[in-house]
Description:
Helix content: 40-55%
Oligomer: single chain
Order of helices and strands: HHHEEHHEH
Strand order of the largest sheet: 1-2-3
Structural class: alpha+beta
Number of helices: 6
Mean pLDDT: 89
Largest sheet: 3 strands, mixed
Number of strands: 3
Distance between the termini: 42 Å
Amino acid sequence: VSYLRSRYKISAEEAEKRLSLEADVLAMSRQLRPDSTFAGITIDHEPTYQIVVLFNDNQDRSAFLQSLPAKMRRYVKVRTVKRNAAAIDAGMDEIMQRLSILPPDG
């Protein structure tokens, strides 16, 4: 709470509200993970607090938004990106593999 208050200049009440939503965000992420169009979730604290859910298609997500708990619905935004989570993970794996074969600095 103190970190959020200091970093984003928000009240203790606002910081606690944001922290209380983290469990819901984690549950939402786990629920969406099997969806092949799901690309991830980001949380923006500035300029306003929002939970951004990323998909790699542009389907109507009204039903998804309505299915969310009321306490988090107002903060969730949906955005479209080029790659889904599996493609992003594969890209990260490739980067890590390439980095691991680099000679150590010496």
